[in-house]
Amino acid sequence: MEIDINVDMGESFGRYVLGNDEALMPWVSSANIATGFHAGDPLVMEQSIVWAKKYQVAVGAHVGLNDRQGFGRRQIDISPAELRSDVLYQLGAIQAFLKLHDMKLQHIKPHGILYRMVGEQERYIDTFLDTIEDYDKDLSIMLHTGCEALKRAEKRGLKTAPEILIDLGYDTDGNWILERVKQARSPREVAERALRAVAEHKIDTVDGNWIHVEGVTVCIHGDAPNAVATAAAVHQKLTEAGVQVKALR
User: Which PANTHER family does the entry mention (predicted)?
Assistant: First the structure.
């Protein structure tokens, strides 16, 4: 068995530090680096890429809504045309730094409420997929298992990276539950959820049931207060069980 561990990072801004990004790097295989809209800034973006190269971690663009105050977790009624231009703008920003550091962009992952908008809302799904297809068909699209956007991406022949959000709650319908402010979870419990999701393809729900999940990557949120301890526990639990942790490609 093998699995990618991805983490959201690069979300500090100026003198305000959110998360311990370098300390997370040894425990993950892919980094979703904020591209300056919901969080991050140019200095933070480049430093995150430098650390990713140092620790041999693959890089993804963590694109979000232009909503720093709400940390990209508030619904904003943007048009499909705005979605396209905003995504392209953010991809261009991170690609500039990657080019200078001789690194390649592995994937794209929407952040916060944008993840829901492009993954599930009819108004945005095809525009998002059109944008990725026009920009770079080789990018893996990281969204949660079974969402409509991934189904359509697969039909188009685009690369997909279904993910399991092991440090968030799920409802019985398989929907992950958005936290406006990321809460700490027990690292041991998150690690156990990760192994069960990878080995048994199931995860617990907030109402005490179990649902089936499939994924090639598991997510840890870097803005959680105990993100480093959680990432270390997940990595250790998986490797001890014989699961190889590796990037998508």
Answer: 5-OXOPROLINASE SUBUNIT A, UNCHARACTERIZED PROTEIN YBGL-RELATED
